[in-house]
Input
Amino acid sequence: MRPASTPTVAQGRTPLQGKARPPGTTRPPARPRVRPATPGDDASLRCLLREGAMAGWVRLALEREPSYFDSLDREAERHDTVVLEEPGEDGEPGNGGIVAMGARLVHSARLAGAPVRIGYLGHLRVAPGRRLPRGALREGWGCLLDQRRSEELPFDLTSIARDNLAARRLLERGLPGIPRYHPVAEYEVLAFPTGGRGRATDRGRGRPPDGVQVEEADPGDWARVRGLFHSRTGSAALVLCPRHDDVPSLAAIPEEEGEATVRLAAREGGEVVAGCAVVDPSPWRQYVVQGYGGALRWARPLANLALWARGGARLPAPGGRIRAGFLTGLACRPGREGALRALLAEASRRARERGMDTLLHGEVVGGPWAQPLATGHRVRRYRSILYLVARQDPGEVLERLRRGTLQVESVLL
Output
């Protein structure tokens, strides 16, 4: 029979190694808790994205307004997000604020011609001034990757800026309990200004060839563009792009949000020789300048004057958005690459009419379209490294991806 003086768990005391806590001792501090995110976390997740601007001369934040979860629903077939939550002031786990997050978005893709589902890891954010406690990264990845479904590939993709050497070295070396990051290829995003005094095509340099006409694609034209795309990517090691056979490309866009996708076809001699879609994700995904570093803090007006003279997009004031659209589904008949200049000129005009100041196109370095697109246009290039992330040795898959052609579109990264 238990002595009457010994408190029980039912009486509200926490046992210490199976016994009553000695007088004068306190409960050990609660640890931060890793858990799957829920719709009730939406506001906290959007706040964390807003505060988690990328460091550099331009502190740029990726935001997902007005709804984090609705935004991911538009871009992925399914998705999982995990959060790190601090204990509350009462010391109870799970009552504090969210201080870190990470997400895995699942997309349809083709691997060596076979339809598959693959995850993309991203949205890793830590609240300003906070450091992840020991073991939190391992627990977070474990929680996230444990939600992988049986029909999904046993590895994921992600990308890290090429200049982020510290993170790359750490993750490539491998940490206990953390999936290994295997570099696959160098990736490049080209940023084209959509207007300005100094556009190269307005000055005649890089002028599109005569006889090329670019118009909005009707269903028949778009089917021919998709045929060009599939003929070039049919033998690719990996194809990861929006489902352009759907209308519209990324998701069903409510009418009140306007036309988020424009499809274009370039004709030469009455034949469709090239085409692409222009996607404006601003209704659900935004790029917001949180501030500037270095000399740009005071020299931004002068920089904008120079950018205007050269045809570049201006740098908005802190708190302003950069309206970036994406070229996606780009295809061209072999030997007709000159038509891409006309296609880019018309895509820029359409984007500018819709308020976009920049068009982005991404491909693996050495891909087929960067050079013909950049000819005669001012362009900024941003490079990163594509990684295959796996708990187990990926074996031959990794080598096939490194040797093969990759069609990975930046709108999904």
